[in-house]
Amino acid sequence: MDAQLSHLPLFGGPKAWHASDWTSTDDRVRGGSSQSELTCSPSSLVAKFHGNLDITTLGGAGFASQRTKSEKRKWNLSSYDGIELNIAGGDGKLYTLNIKDEIAPKRPDGRQESALVWEYDFRADGAKKVYIKWDDLRPTYRGKEQGNVRPLDLKKVKQVSIMIRSFFGKQEGEFQLDIVSISAFRVKHYRDDPEDEDYEIIDDKMEDDVYSPDNPKRQGWLSWFGGCCGLT
């Protein structure tokens, strides 16, 4: 049995980047001074997430992020295994992918209420593909990891965002992350017998440059991934 990948492009790749799909959510909503931009266009092959992470205004804290803008958009990703980030280049800093399945209402002052967020941290230190299995996402509320919460509703993913934060003063200043694409991925198995009802040929090739942070839990995901591919 072999395993290969199929993809559902969400942004970039065969699905063009549009700056109008994204908006900033920086620490300025809490009185900070960080700022971010997502520079892209329909003709761009790469979207650039860049800006300045300031930690002086909030005494060591700071974050900058770009999130999908539309509150009516919804993706059904329940038949996929996770998210693939195709990174063209980075500055070595630690970034975070955030996913939400609900959009909280706004408060009277215009700020949005908090909601559960599923997060994954990755380091951008060059061109690579980052494979994020659903189980690798950490549920958080206001930045704190939560236990005993409901699972992410993959049938109605409503928001995706890319964030950089200070991690209590551990990183700051100018940042830049170049993204080729964001896609949902699925590992498909098939048999050599064409009469098998599960037989399916996928054209996408497995990449060798699978990213692995130094984290035992995520190493477990790599072992699963390698096992599917016959790499272990």
TrEMBL record:
InterPro entries: Galactose-bd-like_sf, NADH-UbQ_OxRdtase-assoc_prot30, NDUFAF1
Domain of life of the native organism: Eukaryota
PANTHER family: COMPLEX I INTERMEDIATE-ASSOCIATED PROTEIN 30 (PTHR13194), NAD(P)-BINDING ROSSMANN-FOLD SUPERFAMILY PROTEIN (PTHR13194:SF19)
Listed GO MF terms: unfolded protein binding
Name of the protein described by the UniProt record: Complex I intermediate-associated protein 30-domain-containing protein
BP-aspect Gene Ontology terms: NADH dehydrogenase complex assembly
Family membership: Belongs to the CIA30 family.
Residue ranges of domain NADH:ubiquinone oxidoreductase intermediate-associated protein in the record: 18-179
